[in-house]
Design a protein that fits this description.
The complex is a heterodimer of chains A (about 300) and B (about 425). By secondary structure, chain A is of the alpha/beta class. Chain A contains nine helices and ten strands. Chain A is globular and about 55 Å long. Chain A starts with 14 loop residues before the first helix and ends with a helix. Chain B has about 425 residues and is an alpha+beta fold. Chain B has eight helices and 24 strands. The chains are: A alpha/beta (about 300), B alpha+beta (about 425).
């Protein structure tokens, strides 16, 4: 049995360096092999980290593709401001696919529960088709959810954007197969092998700025289905739900009407890392109402073409 | 200028698990995740709830890993799933490979990136045909370490002699397949014996628990002793888009596939054979004096040589030959058969070339580890092929290099991944040892 020899340990990458290198390799492969890549950018921490990696991958050249935001219309204002400032700073082209537009002209109808996360699929697929994007970078991680654990780094989607989990291409070594026929596209997940803790440690190490709501702040919230929802334009307390001012932060950002905050004293990135390391609930379990509906909620949405 | 910050205490180890039907693999993986506290409360609550609904007395840890609806309905695992867990010593990426559906396809996939294969056998059944096949795949893919978990030791009353018999049987087979580093551990995944902590119920066993063993295994590679191989992914030329000082910048972006590169090193570009010297190793965080596998960097060279995607930059001290004729071993992963005369695409590093299948030279009988005559290969077959390429590549024997000896075969029409390929006669070297 061979064991670690300290003399050789200097030529070993730390976990974060390894993950960073893998992600940069993936992003460069896509730019080399595809005609029209695009990066899904919401201002959420995973998409922010992905964009940071893209900047590093092509330095000193600028990022050679645009970013796409699928806008639910239920945004946290500070996240939209962050999105616009980032796009401006990096000189990127921003495309927006607006769920609100689809609702306004009748192509989509508001759901009874008012949440819009599931409504993002059609505007996303239309944007991909309209712009002829052939590779779409997403910030999905395999540790997020059981259906995502079976996702490939390069995930082929058919003309309808569908994911067929039983018929995926085997992915061998670091040889990614991005071949596709016209009409098909490939979803690419450079953060596949990252965990929530890796993402936060990397944000800390790289000193990446995030929207402020990822850190603890005072906010008027009310409790629904065991989650803390912010009082605002898109979420109002119903009878029996009382509003309280609490110190909270967000572990994910999405549709304001169904994205919950967690009570937290974590005001710095170091605090958040310590909190994530000690946490006992997954980020989706804690903060996404739409993922808690059924055991297969994510699988069903992914099959239809969701992120 | 500086070198990459080494953090030897938090390295990553990649595992692939494999097993046969009902040998408790999902339970073992669930146990590793649960006992290393990588399963969070809401995930465990969901498993408990479903277990209760199904009338089970205790939480079925296998439910932690079966992610797809059809897997839960059928109670089987269909596709490779990736899991993440960490201890104070190390982080782990686990490729969980199902045992019975498309086992070769899944096991080859998992083994291709693994530092260690964790293989399960049922102590009551001993070495099955499928165990030998998995060992053969681990040998073929040159996985550096193998750990055989001899499971269900509780069902033979923790009997030392039964374990010893199975352990000896497994080791003999593994050694006959050329696997040098094989360890066995007596385990009950269900009861948790020797998974994370050493069990009191196996006092005759003085080795480490499975997790302790995985924490101290050496991952692959000794970058400084291997020759530099650097497949060029793309050329970085900012031109007018950049600040003035980068107007004439020209760098070659890639991930070091093997070895080590230092500023000042003489290099050769393949397939052209032109030579130059490394004058800069760039990253967005600044220049490096050296880079090693698997770092992603950008190299600058002294001379304005013609280099593009698909070229391989190698150390001039060890230059592989370039060729248009490849003898290779392939694991066939597609429904349609492979036969002589097929035209396919071959992807090697960052280069993709057309290839003609000139000859199918036989099929490996994994049970007996010998080559049988065959002129076609079907799904899950492993066999020998001769290929003629439309353009030369710098091919090296997979035996010597897991990075530059590997290739894919791809269908040129619909893009299907047809085969995992290894340059050279991996079969003979597996069977002959």
């Amino acid at each position: 049995m061979s064991v670690i020899d300290p003399a050789r340990a200097t030529y070993r990458l730390s976990q974060l360096d390894w993950l960073e290198s893998e992600a940069i390799h993936i992003i460069r492969e896509v730019v080399a092999e595809f005609e029209r890549p695009v990066l899904l950018f919401s201002g959420g921490k995973d998409s922010v980290v992905m964009l940071h990696l893209a900047v590093k991958a092509f330095w000193p050249s600028p990022v050679p593709f645009p970013v796409l935001h699928v806008d639910t219309g239920h945004n946290f204002p500070e996240v939209l401001a962050y999105r616009d400032a980032t796009v401006e700073r990096l000189g990127l082209r921003l495309e927006v696919a607006s769920v609100q537009d689809y609702i306004d002209d009748g192509r989509l109808r508001e759901r009874a529960d008012g949440t819009r996360n599931p409504l993002q699929t059609q505007p996303l697929l239309d944007a991909i088709e309209g712009h002829k994007f052939d590779a779409v970078f997403g910030g999905g991680r395999r540790d997020e959810e059981k259906a995502r654990a079976k996702e490939r780094v390069f995930s082929l989607r058919d003309e309808f954007g569908q994911w067929d989990p039983r018929n995926q291409r085997p992915e061998l070594w670091n040889l990614y197969n991005g071949r596709h026929t016209p009409g098909q596209h490939v979803r690419v997940f450079p953060l596949s092998n990252w965990t929530e803790l890796d993402v936060w440690q990397y944000i800390g190490r790289e000193k990446i700025e995030l929207p402020e709501l990822y850190y603890a702040h005072e906010r008027d919230v009310f409790e629904r289905d065991g989650m803390l929802l912010a009082v605002g334009e898109f979420a109002q307390p119903r009878d029996g739900e009382t509003v309280e001012n609490r110190q909270v932060r967000y572990r994910t950002v999405g549709d304001m009407s169904c994205t919950g905050a967690v009570e937290s004293p974590a005001v710095t990135v170091e605090d958040v890392i310590a909190e994530v390391a000690a946490t006992r609930v997954t980020e989706r379990g804690a903060t996404r109402a739409d993922d808690r509906i059924s055991e297969a909620a994510m699988e069903d949405r992914k099959k239809e073409g969701y992120f | 200028m500086g070198i990459a910050t080494p953090l030897p205490t938090s390295t990553l180890l990649r595992l692939a698990t494999a097993g046969s039907v009902d040998d408790g693999k999902s339970t073992l993986v669930g146990r590793l995740l649960y006992d290393s506290k990588s399963v969070l409360a809401d995930q465990f609550d969901a498993v408990e709830r479903v277990s209760r609904d199904r009338g089970l007395a205790q939480a079925d840890l296998a439910l932690l890993t079966d992610g797809l609806r059809s897997e839960r309905e059928q109670g089987i695992t269909i596709d490779v799933a990736y899991r993440y867990f960490a201890t104070a010593e190390r982080s782990f990426i686990l490729a969980d490979c199902p045992g019975h559906v498309q086992y070769t396809r899944n096991t080859v996939t998992g083994a291709s990136t693994a530092d260690v294969v964790v293989l399960l056998v049922d102590v009551r059944k001993g070495l099955l045909e499928q165990t030998s096949r998995h060992l053969a795949v681990a040998s073929l893919l040159r996985v550096p370490h193998v750990v055989v978990v001899v499971n269900k030791i509780d069902l033979v009353d923790y009997d030392e002699a039964t374990y010893d018999t199975v352990s000896a049987q497994v080791k003999a087979t593994a050694h006959s397949l050329g696997l040098s580093d094989v360890t066995t551990v007596p385990v009950s995944a269900l009861a948790g014996d020797n998974v994370v902590t050493r069990s009191d119920r196996t006092p005759w066993y003085d080795g480490p628990s499975l997790l302790e063993h995985l924490e101290q295994l050496d991952p692959v590679g000794e970058p400084h002793s291997e020759p530099l191989r650097f497949p060029v992914q793309l050329v970085i030329r900012p031109q007018s888009a950049a600040e003035d000082r980068f107007r004439d910048y020209r760098g070659y972006a890639g991930q070091v596939a093997s070895g080590l590169v230092r500023v000042g090193d003489p290099v050769t570009v393949l397939p052209s054979g032109r030579t130059s010297t490394v004058v800069g190793i760039d990253t967005a965080d600044g220049e490096l004096t050296e880079a090693f596998s698997p770092q992603s960097v950008t190299l600058r060279l002294a001379d304005d040589v013609d280099i593009s995607r698909g070229d391989l930059i190698v150390t001039s001290r060890s230059v592989p030959s370039v060729t248009q004729d490849i003898d290779g071993t392939v694991a066939w992963l597609a429904e349609r058969d492979l036969r002589a005369g097929s035209k396919v695409l071959l992807k090697h590093g960052t280069r993709t070339v057309q290839a003609l299948v000139k000859n199918v030279g036989g099929r490996l009988d994994l049970d007996r580890a010998e080559l049988l005559p065959a002129d076609t290969l079907g799904l899950n077959d492993i066999g020998h092929v001769t290929l003629r390429l439309a353009a030369p590549i710098a091919a090296e024997e997979y035996l010597h290099s897991r990075s530059t000896g590997a290739f894919l075969l791809v269908d040129p029409h619909d893009g299907t991944t047809l085969a995992a390929g290894m340059v050279g006669d991996a079969l003979l070297s597996t069977a002959a040892v």
